[in-house]
Amino acid sequence: MKEPDKIYNTAVEATLEVIGGKWKPVILFHLTFGKKRNNELKGLIPTITQKMLTQQLRELEEEGVILRISYNQVPPKVEYELTDYGWSLKEMLHLMCRWGDTHIERKYGGRATVLANPQLESAHNI
């Protein structure tokens, strides 16, 4: 029997390998609402540096969860969108957002706020 290329303790590790970290889930979450240009993402995530945003976008593209669309025009135009594979993360990302809302309320009551608070579809429609 051939040795496996990679061994995971749980499949959660494989998921985190692709979307883990501080910024990737946030980027992916925003892309569940449609295509975004680099500056749009930067505006939605003001605390991320441009260097980090570029790095995270490249890594997500390498994993096949986002697509970089480059338009042949002047000035250059680039958009990012979820691939079909990336869309399979939507339910999980939206559930993470709902859980985060509950956690914020539980921990802080009315003493915390969420800047980007889009209306999420009901759990049945995801």
From TrEMBL:
Identify the stretch annotated as signal peptide in this record: none
Q: Where is the HTH hxlR-type domain?
A: 3-108
Alphabetized UniProt keyword annotations:
DNA-binding, Transcription, Transcription regulation
Source domain of life is: Bacteria
InterPro entries linked: HTH_HxlR (IPR002577), WH-like_DNA-bd_sf (IPR036388), WH_DNA-bd_sf (IPR036390)
MF (Gene Ontology): DNA binding
Q: Which Pfam families match?
A: HxlR
Q: Which PANTHER family match?
A: TRANSCRIPTIONAL REGULATOR (PTHR33204:SF29), TRANSCRIPTIONAL REGULATOR, MARR FAMILY (PTHR33204)
Identification of the protein by name:
Putative HTH-type transcriptional regulator YtcD
Which gene produces this protein? ytcD_1
